[in-house]
Amino acid sequence: MARFEVLSEDMAAMGSQQMNAEMLFELGMSYASGRDVAEDLVSAHKWFNLAAMKGYGDAARYRKEISEVMSSSDIAEAQRAAREWLGMH
Asked: How does pLDDT run along the chain (89 residues), one tens digit per residue?
């Protein structure tokens, strides 16, 4: 399993690297658990959403679990952030 050092928002250091589904999922796990970064369910939802779109099986399940404790406006924010990320990558 890859380990990521998250030093700035949205893995700026990995900007030149193609992000695969596992990397996106691991970002979601980091933000969901507060591992190496501050816990942020909006960011976690975004990364799980992107990982699920790339076919990472567990990502949709984790996204669903955290969405149960998020407000609808937070979910909408996460979805906008995922669309924005896709537009940039």
From this structure: 444 444 345 554 355 468 899 999 999 999 999 999 999 999 999 999 999 999 999 999 999 999 999 999 999 999 999 999 999 98
* Domain spans of the chain, in order of start: 19-88
Number of H helices, E strands in the chain: 4, 0
Task: Choose among 75, 62, 79: nearest CA to 27.
Answer: 62
Q: Which amino acid, one-letter code, is at 63?
A: R
What is the distance between the alpha carbons of residues 13 and 10, in angstroms, rounded to a whole number? 9
